[in-house]
Amino acid sequence: MLKHRGFPGRMPGTDYQFTIRRANPKGVTPLTRRERFRDRKSVDRQVDATFMKALWEHFGDQPFERGNLDAGRLSWLFGREVIAAEDPFDPASYEALLVIDEAAARASFPEAFEE
After folding, report:
1. Which DSSP state fits 84?
2. What is the dihedral of CA 51, 13, 113, 40, to 10 degrees?
3. Scanning 9, 29, 59, 67, which has its CA 20 to 30 A from the CA of 22?
4. pLDDT value of position 114
5. Using an 8 Å Cβ cutoff, are 91 and 83 in contact?
6. Looking at residue 19, what is its pLDDT?
7. Nearest-angstrom CA–CA distance, 100 and 85
8. DSSP bridge pairs for 82
């Protein structure tokens, strides 16, 4: 499992994690598309925006390996702002390649792209 050095481990000042420390011995948690409903808590929306900003600052528009990025956090963006960069795509692989859909990400999280 690739560890993304320099990537924030969690949202500052909270316990919302962005990365995992070690591979899951029971197997890889697969990425799944999670629905974001309008009534989500504002803190959840802020965490998504902060994670999107970290992804953009770290990887930009280039494909990146899933590695130690948290599956739960990625799943909130998967299928919309973060999409598969390879075909066939294995959602249960730490080596799976992902890429940011910049247009979708800018539409959903404009604050993540502000300087």
Report:
1. E
2. 60
3. 59
4. 81
5. no
6. 93
7. 9
8. 78, 100
